[in-house]
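#onboarding

Welcome to the new folks! Below is a worked example of what a typical request in this channel looks like: someone posts a single protein sequence, and someone else replies with the predicted structure as tokens. Don't worry about understanding the tokens yet, we'll cover that in week two.

Example request:
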Amino acid sequence: MQYLTEIAITKAQQGVFTRTELSCWIDGTLDRRNALLKRALAAREIVRIHRGLYLLAEKYLRQQIDPLCMAQRLDGPSYISLESALSEHGWIPEAVHTVTSVTAGRAKEYTTPIGHFSFVRVPQRKLYTQVRRLEGQGGVKMLGSPLKALCDYVHTHKCDWHSAAPVIESLRVDERSFSQLRQPEFDELLASYRSARVRRFLLGLRKELKQ
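Example response:
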């Protein structure tokens, strides 16, 4: 086993680490650390997730890494949303192969050994309104509520939706899921989102669910 791998097994939280953390673990020059990293990568004991972000090979992990947790390490501040959040909440039946997050920064995508990650930008007054911090396998995940995920979907895909019907038709959401939504959720999101399209969706859906 490579020296760097031995260090990472004992020190890397959930098996994930950065170059900055590596510099704290190993004394010496940058060239020495780069050489150790290169040898561990060549031995396939360490996997490069993205520039400056690494993961122990699967055989050295104490538990599987949840891709939703990895999204937080790739780009932040951000939270899981759109189809990824709807799938996590059990609102849509299909498996989701791309982890989609909303970020405070620029839109970007990452293709990594553990999956594809997409980050989109949705203007909001408060990014983390109706976002829960949850412990997952491999770290922490920030998960948007189902209604927030729908708002982000409407904005990202420019949907002119004013009721539940197009949501049910386009995303195959079970109609019974809407019974989980409460008035304060609509009020919070209406105060947070700037998009006129999102606000029309929220107002239309709230009016329909009150009937």
